[in-house]
Amino acid sequence: MGKDLIAQRRGRGSPRYRSPSFRYAGRISYRPYTAEEREGGITGVISDLIHSPGHTAPLMLITYEDGSEALLPAPKGVRIGQEVTAGVTASTQPAHVAPLRVLPEGTLVYNIEKVPGDGGKFIRSAGSAGRIVAKREDAVVVLLPSKKTKEFHPDARATIGIIAGSGRKEKPFIKAGAKYHYRKARGKKHPRVSGVSMNAVDHPFGGTKSSHKGKPTIAPRNAPPGRKVGKIRPRRTGRRKK
Q1: Can you give the pTM of this predicted structure?
Q2: Strand 130-135 to strand 108-110: parallel, antiparallel, or no bridges (unpaired)?
Q3: How many angstroms separate the CA atoms of 72 and 63, rounded?
Q4: Which helix or strand (DSSP H or E) is residue 224 part of?
């Protein structure tokens, strides 16, 4: 019988490939797009800065004056208690949210909406930002971190600034265990070394002498921990006789 492809095994949702979303701070999204934002603005306060294992950037929790909240990636240079504005009257300071049509060319933005009101889809990873390069009546052109340009709806909202955490990739993982736990927190696959590739002292299948064809991979019934590898008490092995 064949084996599932890696993509198929990840889609199955087994514990090894399942993201622990119950540990995440929440969904990254703007508050609902109201007429108050389209015509003016609403003021809020950064009430908390949060670390979420499911996101590469630190998050900021914004509490607005009407009681609504929004969880967004935090830009560089913000602090708890800072006032921010969402709407057409927002300034060009970091952490303010505004439609693309009211922002001047050259402004650095992130978390851009694909459709006005969807909460933000583009440029959300740590250290990234886009730049507004051109504006037309029917579209706003943004230079993405990939150096490609993309047109957005003029009413699509974006956050001003550069997402914090730009030095995240500069620190080395040092050892494989740190990389394993980093990827496991996001439900990603981390490669594992096969037993036959190891030395004889590290695995029962290791070494060149034990890797010859025909060596049984069946662990004895009373094998101690560390020796119970390969097929453990299988129902049957070998070719099926007719």
Answers
A1: 0.76
A2: antiparallel
A3: 11
A4: none
Handedness of CA 70, 78, 127, 131 (dihedral sign): positive
How high does pLDDT run on average in the chain?
87
166-212: pLDDT as tens digits: 988 888 999 989 998 888 888 777 888 888 888 888 888 888 876 66
pLDDT tens, residue by residue, 87-144 = 999 989 999 999 999 999 999 999 999 999 999 999 999 999 999 999 999 999 999 9
Distance CA 76, CA 112 (A): 17
Class of CATH domain 14-166 = mainly beta
Triad 166, 141, 73: Cα angle to 5°: 30
Q: Which of the 8 DSSP states describes residue 239? A: P
Q: Report how far Cα 41 is from the mean position of its chain's Cα atoms.
A: 30
Distance separating the N- and C-terminal Cα atoms of the chain: 17
Cβ proximity of 47 and 61 under 8 Å: yes
Domain layout of the chain by residue ranges: 14-166
Longest CA–CA separation in the chain, Å: 80
